[in-house]
Design a protein that fits this description.
- This protein is of the alpha/beta class.
- The protein contains 8 helices and 6 strands.
- The protein has helices spanning about 1-5, 15-20, 25-35, 45-50, 70-75, 85-100, 120-130, 155-170; strands at about 10-15, 40, 60, 80, 100-105, 135-140.
- The strands form 2 sheets. Strands 1-2-3-4 form a 4-stranded parallel beta sheet.
- The longest helix is centred in the last third of the chain and has 19 residues, at about 155-170.
- The chain is globular and about 40 Å long.
- The model has no long low-confidence stretch (mean pLDDT about 95).
Length: about 180
């Protein structure tokens, strides 16, 4: 995969659900050794399991992390997806207390309706997060709800929504390194 996408693109390997049944630790290590820049999981528990298994490197939690988990997230070097001011404040406080910077990602809810910030709330949220110490913008993403279906109508609709949000963030000077 890395050979196909080239050296300028960062690869994120999703190893949630125990590496889709193949073993998250072994799959994660193999992905990182093969050129992936990041691993992604859905829960903080999955991320902590990777850490306990000796997996180093960037681990992004795509699902919700709760404010009372902020200290654990920061202490274990986990990259959170922040979709609320409350979580942003908790991660900021934990990062500041630990004397570190925490990279974060933001999920835009373009139609899955499971998690993420609504498109119209994205710019105000990221502006608020930008003012908090200890936080560093890194990634912006969405989850295409029906990408595996033959009819791509809803995927293209979600893509257009995500693109509009990305343009609005860029216009506000809020760019992300990873998309």
């Amino acid at each position: 995969m890395k050979d196909f996408i080239g050296p300028l693109v960062e690869l994120m390997a999703v190893v949630k659900a125990d590496g889709y049944g193949h073993g998250a630790i072994a799959t994660g290590r193999t992905a990182l050794a093969s050129g992936a820049h990041h691993l992604a999981v859905y829960t903080l528990a999955e991320a902590l399991s990777l850490r306990k298994g000796g997996v180093d490197g960037s681990i992004v939690v795509l699902g919700p992390i709760y404010a009372n988990q902020a200290t654990t997230c920061v202490a274990d070097g986990i990259t959170p997806c922040i979709s609320s001011r409350e979580l942003g404040q908790a991660i900021s406080a934990a990062a500041t207390s630990a004397g570190t910077q925490v990279a974060f990602h933001v999920e835009i809810d373009t139609g899955l309706t499971r998690y993420g910030v609504l498109p119209e709330e994205a710019v105000p949220l990221v502006e608020a997060l930008d003012k908090l110490p200890g936080l560093r913008r890194e990634g912006l993403f969405t989850h295409f709800a029906n990408a595996d279906e033959e009819d791509k109508t809803s995927v293209w609709k979600q893509f257009r929504v995500f693109s509009k949000v990305r343009l609005a963030l860029n216009a506000a000077g809020l760019t992300f390194r990873v998309y």
